[in-house]
Specification:
three-stranded mixed sheet, 191 residues, 6 strands, Nucleotide Exchange Factor Grpe, Chain A, domain 2, alpha+beta
Length: 191
Amino acid sequence: MIDENPTPEQDPEIEAVTPEIDPADALRAENADLKDRVLRVHAEMENLRKRTEREVADTRSYAIAGFARDMLSATDALSRALMVLPAEARNNGDATTKSLIDGIEMTEREMQRLLAKHGVKPIEAEGQKFDPHRHQAMFEVPDPTRPEGTVVQVVQAGFAIGDRVLRPAMVGVAKGGPSHVGGAEAVDKSV
């Protein structure tokens, strides 16, 4: 069998045509490639470390969010219980009734204090410009004396933990007054 493509070892008349690669250049190229890989891995690890730190900080800050929402329901129930008590029961009630009312008030204050201790803060709404990210409009109030889009009544207080809204404030918004001044955009009523 005759080989159609003989190699230089098989046929001494054929010269080997192999480009000469400088070993130092090859090592430099490999070094540059490895250095690039190390820098990329280092950058990825640094990004991962920063992202993990942010996630851990968020988890610490917002882990209580579900529990806080549940506690807000209990706090609301105490507030409603105090609101429905007639003034005469507070003033003219017997010692047991007054003690019960005082106990409910103290419990509500303590729950509010504990929520605040863990970063749960009420959302300011009354007199503020309506913010759909922090307020939930329940109704409009015709009031030509107030700028349009101003919160004029709070039906239920809203709460936030850090910069996240746990529960938006349920509010009534002024309608028919002058628009807000100072370059603020008008309230979007198209929704």
